[in-house]
Amino acid sequence: MRRTYVFLGLSCLVFGTAIGAPRQEPLAEQQFKNIVSFKGEKAADVMPAMEFMSGSLKVECDYCHTDDRASDAKEEKKTAREMIAMQRDINAKHFGGRNVITCATCHGGKTHPTPVPPIEGLEVRARRSDSVAPAQVLQAYGKAVGGDAAKVRAGVRLEGTTTLKGEKTRVEAIYAGDKYRFVNHEKKGDKPEGFNGSMAWFSMPYGIQPVPLQYAVQFVNQRQVFTGPDSLPKLQNLTGGTAKLDGRDNLVVTGFQPDKTRISLYFDKQTGLLGRAAFYYPTILGTIVRINDYSDYRKVEGVPFPMTVKIHSPEGEIVQQFRSARLDPKVSATTFDPPKK
């Protein structure tokens, strides 16, 4: 019986619409209270628009609304109005009013859009915590690596492989303090690169490309392997935090270098060892993020050393896997200079 009533009701609606004068659809402000962004739009278009925003941020209605849907109590609702106005302004000025730029363009299913080029590891975010004292975390790191860490900083030679874009090459590396030299043995020939303490350099088809120190921060940090507190970047305005890294609890120390580069160092809460160094480099257009993950720690003359380093950057992922390591305290300083030819 109920189905009959529904069918008859729909029939009457269709029949009445067909023979009567067309009714003007109500506007959003006529059907909903406190409408701001959608004034002048059809009321029927409001809920689909809400659904689009919800899907773009992967949130429910209560992210912006209270039980009283007309209320302006939540800041998120005010922000949403500003974002709608911004989207419309961009599309009107640059795309002829077409919805080319939308909530989904920037948010991509997240409440906060990612303002940096996407790389692996960005999903891990440290939470600031006043209970985490940076000095104590660094002290624990010093105990974890032991008092002989200075031996490794005096000089260590490593052999292994580097994998970039699916291609694996044999690599030899030498570290001494902040200085290093890498040689990738590629099919087309050896490609050395290094840092001698005052200048970074790398190989190009036309020869060696020097990089002055003031421009070499990213290049140098990408290759650094830290072996104790003294080897870490010198940071200012330190803060503490916590994070999960590969399911393990980490204590995070964050600070800034003089050039305003922000660095977050992740230390395993249980072992005290460094598991990640995240570098945030400011540019005039935005921030570039590079992340180094350190794992597979093995003892070299009693000192824990990360034999696997994964480098995540906008250019792609580099995996360095060292098979062997031996101390060499007699490494010559000239080893880290660029080739003369």
UniProtKB/TrEMBL annotation:
One of the protein's GO biological processes: photosynthesis, light reaction
Keywords from the named record: Electron transport, Heme, Iron, Metal-binding, Photosynthesis, Signal, Transport
Keyword check for Metal-binding: yes
InterPro entries recorded: Multihaem_cyt_PRC_cyt_su-like (IPR023119), Multihaem_cyt_sf (IPR036280), Photosyn_RC_cyt_c-su (IPR003158)
GO cellular component: plasma membrane light-harvesting complex
GO molecular function: electron transfer activity; heme binding; iron ion binding
Signal peptide start and end residues: 1-20
Descriptive protein name: C-type cytochrome
Naturally occurring in which organism (per UniProt): Fimbriimonas ginsengisoli Gsoil 348
